[in-house]
Amino acid sequence: MADRVGLSRVAGRQGGVVTASQAVSLGFSRDQVRHLVRSGRWIRVARGCFVPAPQVDVATLRRARIRAAVESLGPVAVLDTAAELHRIGGSARSFSGSRLGASGSATAPAAG
């Protein structure tokens, strides 16, 4: 039996995003996940990442997509979207093109 309360808790801790693996570990079958997406009750934000809600506002959906992308990158994150995700003030464009490497050091885009 699918643990919907557990799924809500996981989504709440992860900016509204759950993975297919997490859903399966909470008792959802892969067929159930596919059905929930196809029926529009869940929103696919990246491969294997979903928002388990039928409707979300544009800002929430954008943050969910950013969260899914950052999770898929592991220790590497694009600073402007990471700043937006964490609601850090200032112009997101001021970080444009910078990356934070696995060592934690910021690098500027290569001159082209």
Notes on the structure:
The protein is of the alpha+beta class and 112 residues long. It has helices spanning 4-13, 20-25, 30-38, 58-73, 79-85; strands at 18-19, 43-46, 49-51, 77-78, 99-100, 106-107. Helix content is 43%, strand content 13%. The strands form two sheets. The protein has a three-stranded antiparallel β-sheet. The termini are far apart.
What structural keywords apply?
three-stranded antiparallel sheet; 5 helices; 43% helix; elongated
List the helices and strands and how they pair.
Layout: H1 4-13, E1 18-19, H2 20-25, H3 30-38, E2 43-46, E3 49-51, H4 58-73, E4 77-78, H5 79-85, E5 99-100, E6 106-107
Antiparallel strand pairs: 1-3, 2-3, 4-5, 5-6
Helix pairs in contact: 4-5
